[in-house]
Amino acid sequence: xxxxxKKQICITSIGMxxxxxNTLRLFFKGPCGGRCILVEKEVAEVxxxxxxxxxxxxxxxxxRQQYPMQPCIVLSINQVEIxxxxxxxxxxxxxxxxxxxxxxIQQLQNIAKITAITxxxxxxxxxxxxxxxxxxxxxxxxxxxxxRLFVGNLPDIDTADPEQVESAEYxxxxxxxGYLQQAIAEANSGNYRVDMETPSGVITALPNSHHILVALxxxxxxxxSRLPLLHDITLKQGDVGSDTRGAKKSRINVDSLLWRVALWxxxxxxPVGTDLAAPIYLKHxxxxxxxxxxxxxxxxxxxxxxxxxxxxDTAKMLDVPQxxxxxxxxxxxxxxxxxxxQRSVDRLVQPQAARQHKKHSLFGRILATLRx
Length: 372
Known about the structure:
By secondary structure, the chain is of the alpha/beta class. It has helices at about 5, 20-30, 55-65, 95-120, 130-150, 160-165, 175-190, 220-225, 255-265, 295-305, 310-320, 320-335, 345-350, 360-370; strands at about 10-15, 35-40, 45-50, 70-75, 85-90, 170, 195-200, 200-205, 210-215, 235-240, 250-255, 270, 280, 340. Helices cover about 45% and strands about 15% of the residues.
């Protein structure tokens, strides 16, 4: 048994009242056998967030901004899909909570393994700041590896080189994303069901629905989304009330699916025809509980909700690789959340000059402004 398995896991609760906290304490002492203990957030290794509490979503996002590497368990009466985050449906049962805690511990073990590999010769008496820095770097490497599935690994481009700009573009109409958006639009405008027949299975778009029926696995969806389609996908109309069972299908939130499909297709690129110098803003804050979160996504969202910035200026302002900004724009653009600012006030007033942020001071000021 490893040291991580033997030690007591410190967990903090977010958005829970005293009664819920007492229930957790009793559960940790009983079924968990004292393996977990409820602590203040400053010393916690894992957090549990009640998304259904008053301001739960804001509390979650604030905590993730402050502790981005910390394993997180979210509770809700609705199904929640956040990449890398463990979700539990209410009402909770002992087995599900135990499994969630085990998964959180596994995430801690993965970070510890990477730390052991990347730091084979630790200092005899490491200072607290250095230990935290090593763990942070190891966690970042782990997240970067997972993020490549969605943002790829393209280097920054020189916009003065047309070939580099062209290499960073993609035409969504040539990818599965374009077919999916077409099917959803046809279903909504025509008030009928649209079946997308693919080599891997059928996807059904229902009119004016928040969900889409999918008979493909996650891997099949990713494979279908990543490359330009060399074959046509057949779209067939059908009656809303007709039998759509056939093969077993999963009900997936439309925004959640379209977000992932756009990320898989873009992989660090931006839609063809995008003006890299145009100021971009978000119409409203994305529902992050339904979307796959990747590094820097929350920071970009906070910036664009507060004030329009171009894609290039955003990368400079936040000091992040361009591919993360391009991917975020591609995904929010697919959902209709991102737009080019045409407001006169944004043209008359010069936006703040892009500069590289120092540590997290700039981002902290942005969040402080949003909370006013």
